[in-house]
């Protein structure tokens, strides 16, 4: 195989950046698009010059498709991925891997049985900012990592998002929507988790949308909107995490990694670039460091490209289904711990993804 032939299911908001970044790639040929809304698929095919528009069912069984890019909403992630895998297609999908752990289990199980690969966003850890941080940690620039913090403090998306309803339902909220960026970055930088604990609350039972499209609409809140967590990493480091849609203002950093010989200030893990700062033991000021890796703009699709390369060359996928599963289990673990008044011991394991080579 020279290139993986990719068919897209889900031609909504996020599909544009994937199409823009992936239409011409060494290891990818986008051969077809599909959506429950046929018009949406037609428009993307026209804009990006994709030859074929199929129904999702036609796409799953098409013999000229090797891999499905699943860009549907979280509630459809499992159904679409399973149909693709059962028909012998590799799958890369947007986060989270699924809403429930049972569905995620089934996705990985079917992939294993069929000898297929599963990859899952986020892929921001493959960008220049987080790869620079990884290289610094691996080189020992801050000594041994002993602790980390990860904060996403906001007041939710209903002031700007045209359709914010789903953000307050199961499978979203700040933890499931934004947590994957932070948790994946922590696995990439420090390693997998041994156990987690947390407290999860909602400040409001209803939210009032103020975005122009939904101004005044009442949104029922059916998921926690402020989650505080503690992570024990396999290697002994300890992490503190807050993901919130209940905060009007804060001065906390995105991610910091504290080592025995210094601190690394990590850029926003929802982006691909910098800045990266370091403060070594005894130094008074932070130093901004030059990025060691490229891919620093909006590079969504890097994970898909990496997976296509993996399929063509027979090597592992960095944004792997196993890592996506570990992230999903940890997110459920924070809620379980909060409900049960005790730590949640992680059942799954995953590898730290291999760092990206410098050019
Ligand atoms: N919008 C963003 O800024 C953004 C950023 C990062 C990640 N994501 C992730 O990308 C995914 C998609 O988000 P979006 O904003 O593009 O959503 P969207 O609602 O704009 O688009 C989703 C599309 O999927 C289609 N769809 C839904 N169920 C389907 C099914 N069963 N079969 C075929 N098509 C189906 C819908 O018709 C729609 O066109 C989500 O997982 C989201 O978390 C979105």
From TrEMBL:
Residues 5-120 form the Gfo/Idh/MocA-like oxidoreductase N-terminal domain. Signal peptide: none annotated. It holds the Pfam family GFO_IDH_MocA_C3. InterPro entries: Gfo/Idh/MocA-like_OxRdtase_N (IPR000683), Gfo/Idh/MocA_oxidrdct_glycsds (IPR050463), GFO_IDH_MocA-like_dom (IPR055170), NAD(P)-bd_dom_sf (IPR036291). The keyword Oxidoreductase applies. Residues 131-265 form the GFO/IDH/MocA-like oxidoreductase domain. It comes from the Bacteria. Transmembrane segments: none annotated. Keywords: Oxidoreductase. PANTHER family: BCDNA.GH03377. This is Gfo/Idh/MocA family oxidoreductase. It comes from Alkalicoccobacillus gibsonii.
């Amino acid at each position: 195989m020279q290139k993986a032939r990719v068919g897209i299911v889900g031609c909504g908001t996020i599909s544009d950046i994937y199409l823009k970044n992936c239409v011409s790639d060494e290891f990818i040929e986008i051969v077809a698009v599909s959506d429950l809304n046929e018009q949406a698929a037609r428009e993307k095919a026209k804009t990006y010059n994709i030859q074929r528009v199929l129904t999702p069912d036609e796409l799953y069984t098409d013999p000229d498709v090797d891999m499905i890019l699943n860009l549907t909403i979280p509630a459809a992630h499992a159904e679409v991925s399973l149909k693709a895998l059962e028909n012998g297609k590799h799958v890369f999908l947007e986060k989270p891997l699924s809403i429930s752990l049972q569905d995620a289990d089934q996705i990985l199980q079917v992939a294993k049985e069929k000898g297929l690969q599963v990859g899952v966003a986020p892929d921001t850890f493959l960008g220049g900012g987080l790869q620079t941080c990884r290289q610094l940690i691996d080189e020992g620039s801050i000594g041994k990592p002993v602790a980390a913090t990860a904060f996403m403090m906001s007041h939710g998306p209903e002031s700007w998002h045209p359709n914010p309803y789903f953000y307050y339902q199961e499978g979203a909220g700040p933890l499931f929507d934004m947590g994957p960026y932070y948790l994946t970055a922590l696995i990439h930088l420090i390693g997998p988790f041994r156990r987690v604990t947390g407290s999860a609350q909602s400040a409001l039972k209803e939210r009032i949308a103020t975005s122009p499209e939904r101004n005044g609409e009442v949104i029922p809140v059916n998921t926690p909107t402020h989650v505080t967590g503690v992570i024990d990493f396999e290697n002994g480091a300890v992490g503190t995490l807050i993901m919130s849609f209940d905060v009007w203002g804060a001065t906390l950093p995105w991610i910091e990694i504290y080592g025995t010989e210094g601190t690394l200030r990590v850029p926003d893990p929802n982006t691909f670039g910098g800045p990266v700062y370091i403060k070594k033991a005894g130094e008074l000021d932070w130093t901004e460091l030059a990025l060691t890796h490229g891919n620093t703009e909006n590079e969504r699709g890097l994970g898909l490209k990496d997976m296509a390369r993996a399929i063509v060359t027979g090597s592992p996928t960095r944004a792997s289904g196993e890592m996506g599963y570990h992230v999903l289990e940890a997110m459920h673990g924070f809620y379980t711990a909060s409900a049960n008044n005790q730590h949640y011991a992680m059942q799954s394991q995953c590898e730290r993804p291999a760092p990206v080579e410098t050019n």
